[in-house]
Amino acid sequence: MPVSLPAAPPVMSRLPVGTATHCPYCALQCGMHVRPDGITPRDDIPANAGGLCQKGWTAGDLLTSPHRLTTPLLYGNPVGWDEALDFIADRLKSIQAEHGPDGVAVFGGGGLTNEKAYQLGKFARVALRTSQIDYNGRFCMASAAAAGNRAFGMDRGLPFPITDLARADVVLLAGGNVAETMPPFVRHFNRAGQLIVADPRITPTAKLATLHLQLTPGTDLALALGLLHIAIAEGYADKAYLAERVNGFEAVRDSVAAWWPERVERITGVPVARMRDTVQALGTARRAVILTARGAEQHAKGTDTVTAFINLALALGLPGREGSGYGCVTGQGNGQGGREHGQKADQLPGYRHIEDQAARAHVAAVWGVDPADLPGPGRSAYELLDALGTPAGPKALLLFGSNPVVSAPRSGHITARLAALDLLVVSDLVRSETAELATVVLPTTQWAEEAGTLTNLEGRVLLRRQAVAPPSGVRSDLSILAALARRLGHEFPDEPPAVFDELRRATAGGVADYAGITYERIAAETGVFWPCPAEDHPGTPRPFLDRFATPDGRARMVPVEHRPPVEDIDDDYPLYLTTGRVLAHYQSGAQTRRIPALTAAAPEVFVEMHPQLAERIGVAAGDRVRVASRRGSTEAPARLSQAIRPDTVFMPFHWEGVNRLTNPALDPISRMPEFKVCAVRVEGGTP
Ligand SMILES: Nc1nc2c(c(=O)[nH]1)N[C@H]1C(S)=C(S)[C@@H](COP(=O)(O)OP(=O)(O)OC[C@H]3O[C@@H](n4cnc5c(=O)[nH]c(N)nc54)[C@H](O)[C@@H]3O)O[C@H]1N2
Ligand SMILES: Nc1nc2c(c(=O)[nH]1)N[C@H]1C(S)=C(S)[C@@H](COP(=O)(O)OP(=O)(O)OC[C@H]3O[C@@H](n4cnc5c(=O)[nH]c(N)nc54)[C@H](O)[C@@H]3O)O[C@H]1N2
Ligand code: SF4
Ligand SMILES: [Mo]
């Protein structure tokens, strides 16, 4: 049965074209024209080719929002820029004088442009000389990144253009709800092909699927092991490909021998027949793609789970074949570029490792410093937030592009850590929940008010052009960093093209090599795929066609074992809580909860539950219930739905409170928290 796709949107009225730029939100980075009277989609950008979601259509309201910050705030009171910046610099110096360089920490975001992400990493290592920097991408696709590096020697979310999906006969999507999280994505699925979705809920994406695997939360790893077991048993392993391109098949084959389909059914709840249908579809397809997203990745075993799906893809001979492959559906606007240029605790620009001596020497030369002066690796995002204000932890935090009071796991605890700081500086467009706690808030320019590059989920570097003048009183993040650096004795460029030129040099020769990418080329070619080592190099849409990025060019299969969620259900907390997104809101909601059309579409948080469960616990539709975990509790109205398993409740995390419940248990490799499964109880039922 072919995939059923929603009807194409009506043909756009041909309004005068404005500035060609890109959406402020997710990693699809839809192309859009911004005009004074509104937004229209671009049709020259393949990822959206004329489409936008509701958030994109209404993004213009961000530019005129009455909630916009336009003056720095010191202890909540408006002050001038010099006063704010002098205050911050003085406090940074005195805190570092007392506690050493690591007394100050920096936290970034995957929504920041490449230029900002790069500059933030340089600011931390050069101006502050702190090792304490990480960013919210650790909460996003860090597990897929770690697994991709382990298997392929390179983490490029989709190692092929998104338009390749149209040629795949079968797509298996584990833990992604792209119909709500990137609506124009669904137009790339092959209408004549099959879509198989693994999700505990019957989401709008699962409704498009030809086959839905409605697994128990936290069991994707068992599912992937079971699928590989069946694939090998039924003779679908591609022996010629494995011999030519892959190391480690035998050990993985032996490790899945015990993952009998019936055993996997008991753990996942997915019927054996559906697993067999899935394997048969993948195994007999001429071209097939396996994708993972946050549903499978945001677990304390996320890296191993993605590894298990990559093992399946490798056994079937998919990666590195045109029209086939494995990919991670990256999330934030610059989720891909944001993980390449050094705002990660263990990383230098160009996806270089901070402990690699050659990498340190290269980057230090670009920065004009002694390699020995560059700090080593710091704490990962949750561990950094958890250490704030503790005796051994940082006493100050500079935060750019994240709202952890809403979005961090165990957020009640993280809010207390933020409140324990001597100095919290937040650069933001609006007074987010985290900015409410800040000693100093710095109002910054946003997407269409400034230029910069972003790297979309395909690894295509795009140019987000400035379309409007910023309101008076705000400054760009780059100029804020330059002004602070100057006060700390360093000269940093503050214009995006100058920063990008430096980024090109810093990434030259690295895994994520941008040396050959220029603003002019991006504009002329509607984006350039990295790696692109020289201006006459065409860029690399499909990096794995001939070889993988490992030293011997072969992919690595790694045996992995399933284990239950870190916190399983029991008598006290008998239900699984899983969390995720709704169409109308973005992330912590700091931006979208301030847009009237979006709050009208999705006005408040809710807890989705099956009617059988509701009946069992005495809850009627719309009742306010209390949801409690071992870490905290929150209230929300109940929303009854047949689309969820009776043992599981779902809450979107766009509102403060949901993350008070979530479990910060971390993946040992990626340091990803277990956002997608913890144990809760639901009480109440008061109308
Ligand atoms: N509307 C909207 N779109 C967004 C965003 C947004 O906030 N709002 N954010 C962007 C960002 S940063 C990201 S990372 C992406 C995320 O994009 P997705 O990964 O598509 O989004 P999620 O809703 O987090 O999770 C996807 C699905 O995982 C399912 N799930 C939960 N637990 C499990 C599990 O254990 N196993 C499996 N297989 N599935 C499970 C959920 O039911 C959910 O339907 O979206 C991007 N696009
Ligand atoms: N329970 C649960 N929690 C989750 C998730 C989940 O699935 N479940 N998903 C996780 C994921 S995948 C992600 S990516 C995180 C995201 O969560 P956050 O890190 O909180 O991301 P945003 O809400 O996008 O926060 C961005 C903030 O920066 C501001 N901002 C936007 N652009 C700029 C800019 O250019 N400069 C500056 N200085 N500020 C800017 C915005 O106004 C906003 O306040 O949440 C994670 N938390
Ligand atoms: S799908 Fe993502 S990039 Fe496209 S309009 Fe919606 S939020 Fe923007
Ligand atoms: Mo994300």
Automatic annotation (TrEMBL):
Coiled coil: none
UniProt-recorded Gene Ontology molecular function terms: 4 iron, 4 sulfur cluster binding; metal ion binding; molybdopterin cofactor binding; NADH dehydrogenase activity
Keyword Iron assigned: yes
Stored InterPro entries: Asp_de-COase-like_dom_sf, MoPterin_dinucl-bd_dom, Mopterin_OxRdtase, Mopterin_OxRdtase_4Fe-4S_dom, Prok_molybdopt-oxidoreductase
Domain 4Fe-4S Mo/W bis-MGD-type intervals: 16-65
Database matches in Pfam families: Molybdop_Fe4S4 (PF04879), Molybdopterin (PF00384), Molydop_binding (PF01568)
GO biological process: respiratory electron transport chain
SUPFAM superfamilies attached to this UniProt entry: ADC-like (SSF50692), Formate dehydrogenase/DMSO reductase, domains 1-3 (SSF53706)
Keywords: 4Fe-4S, Iron, Iron-sulfur, Metal-binding, Molybdenum, Oxidoreductase
Domain of life: Bacteria
Protein name: Molybdopterin oxidoreductase
Lineage of producing organism: Bacteria, Bacillati, Actinomycetota, Actinomycetes, Streptosporangiales
Gene: nasA
